[in-house]
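Q: What does the assembly look like in three dimensions?
Context provided by user:
Components: three
Sequences:
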Amino acid sequence: MDAAFHVQKLNVFYGKKQALRDVNMEIPAKAVTAVIGPSGCGKSTFVRCLNRMNDLVPGFRVEGSILYQGKDIYSRGMDVIDVRRKIGMVFQKPNPFPKSIYENIAYGLRIQGVKNKEKIDTVVEESLKKAAIWEEVKDRLPQSALSLSGGQQQRLCIARALAVAPEVLLLDEPTSAIDPIATGRIEELLRELKESYTIVIVTHNMQQAARISDITGFFLMGELVEFDPTSRMFTNPKDSRTEDYITGRFG
Amino acid sequence: MIEGALFLSALLSVFITVGIIGVLLFETVSFFGEVSILDFLTDTEWTPLFADKHFGILPLFTGTFLTTLIAMAVSLPIGLISAIYLSEYASDRLRTTAKPFLEILAAIPTVVYGYFALLFVTPLLQKIIPDLSGFNALSPGIVMGIMIIPIISSLSEDAMHAVPNGLREGGYALGSTRLQVALRVVLPAAFSGVAASFILGISRAVGETMIVAVAAGLQPRLTLNPFVPVETVTAYIVQVSLGDTPAGTIEYRTIFAAGMSLFVVTFLLNIISYSLRKRFREVYE
Amino acid sequence: MNGQETIRVEISDHKRIGRLADRAFSILGLFATTVGLAVLLVLLIDVFIDGYPRLGWDFLTQYPSRKPENAGILSAWVGTAWLMVLTALIAFPLGVASATYLEEYGRKSWLTGFIEINIANLAGVPSIIYGLLGLGLFVRGLNLGRSVLAGAATLAILVLPIVILASRESIRAIPASIREASYALGASKWQTIRHQVLPAAMPGILTGTILAMSRAIGETAPLITIGALTYVAFVPTPPVSLEPPFIHPQGLFDAFTALPIQVFNWVSRPQKAFSINAAAGIIILLIITFVMNGIAVYLRHRYQKKIRW
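A: Here is the predicted structure of the complete assembly.
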């Protein structure tokens, strides 16, 4: 497997507090990588480093390097906006813009200066289809995105992320705020998407990680304790702390 | 007993509103006993203090409209840009320091602004615009606009600040610049709150009295020329009050009819602003 | 995929412009935020340069005069002092009582809802309308004439919404645990409010009242409307004296002028010497306004820092 990201000696600080400690990780391309761990372990911080979303947090500081396709995304010459266009993200709470369903998807194109209506129409349809929500919304594109259910909103957000043609999709606990049936649909969707995208998903749900991921990283108190193929981690963990966590002894 | 007394105090505010409407209505009705509403709304001259009396409110309305327009042309862009800057660009520290300073602008007595408009801004503008009359709509309009900046910037900033961070993150994650997030995500999401601040600003400009009474001149004139003296509805009330007008005369009643028009306009603006703010709060709080 | 492939090409131009706009806006924003303050600074400097030479003991102790160099603001500041004391005496108890009812007694009903909308709306009514109310109600209706009492009543009504809103906010911030502790000791509702809630809320209420007074002190239009005189060469009868009957309520019914009115009067005159007087009057007015605002900000700051529930 080719690696999409090479994370090397990553240390992250918020003010004086250290959030991540010496993390090394090779994230494979065109596969699903799960990131698990108890709350406050740094898993969200980690995934938000991969597209520099943490730059927005006051006091955030990073050491070490994250190579994406061989280039350090934190290096001087790197443009943060380019990084985020290539590396899309979906958040814990569905965050559709208070605009129509259509405009939510079209937004990413419009900010890039695309004006051609046909082109936008095509991309809107393609993206909604990829996110497996086209059938449900095709007759109500001008309606407010806020009128959708939580699960639909989250798939809309995935479609919105796909519309700008990213190479990577980061998902930060994307199913924690929605019901089990909708969760099932999103998991199914992610399995399909990994054919063409590199996917990193943060989850507090170990069954979810086991169901959909190819490789799993376990974080504890800011450290990457174990990083192994999912099948191995859930049957035969190397580290006793991983075992304690996945068997439900804490967390 | 105590509850009853407290209740009466709370009810006092309702009595005040009733009192305002009652007083204005009482004199306005007597006024329209002598002057037809049609004349009042369509006559193009306002000369109640002259021998040849005309009671057309239009020249006062255009005076108010013109000064308000100028004030909004100043305060709206500056206030909005400042709000976007404070909410989306500035550090927390700058934001919390700048806001109280901006609010000093709103705390200055308006007669002081009148002085400033008449004796500083007008002479300054006359250097650029030689035709500018010593009394005009432009200078008090600009000064009024500066006074209104903090209303717009502060309330719009509150509204934009209340927009959930999740929406901003959604925008940034798609590769938006800061400006794109501000203009295309945050501003539309805060629209009703921002609009409420604009309307409140307009209401303030319409009701503002001393700046225009001092610096716009006291000459009712049906014009939209910002370089000549005009009179606003509010300035007219001041002008009559300064004289010795006996109660019960038609001149005395004109100020209540003018006041009634002013009250209706500002009341409507305030209600719109209030309901917009309420709608905004229901969405995000 | 064909849609997305073609898009890539046109993006790069737009990208450069977008980034430039972003940079430009951060400069524009800083400018917009400071332009108001810059004007304020110019205003203060202008007024100070114009008015400073005129300031002095004489300016405070002389009545207005036809000769600008002899004119002072004695009647104006005494009138303003009268107005402030009376306005506070009227607005403070009414505002606190009203806020107490709405926060502690008023149940959610159409009536309390109506009162709330009403107060919010009153806060937005132009001050000159209050002048017309004062003219119709106090000067004519209650026959108080163009007296300092009528002026104070008008200003009190004008600032009442500010006092009510500030008091409500302050009362609302008192945690339920304080009330519960008092009830647990067997106190009645009124005792709880009187001895626990109101004292705890007092700093906030006072802050609001001072801000309301600083608003009232600069109000000119409503006082002109009720007929405050612009040229007054006397002061209201002092309320107390050393000779019997010691207390003189008739001062309440005397005619008056006030600082902002005196300033307005001087500004309206074409002679340069009078505008210098106006500038000097403005300096005094601004000093009082800033000191009051400063006290309010200080109180709020100190209170917020010290008490954490």
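Follow-up: Chain B has one domain: 22-284.
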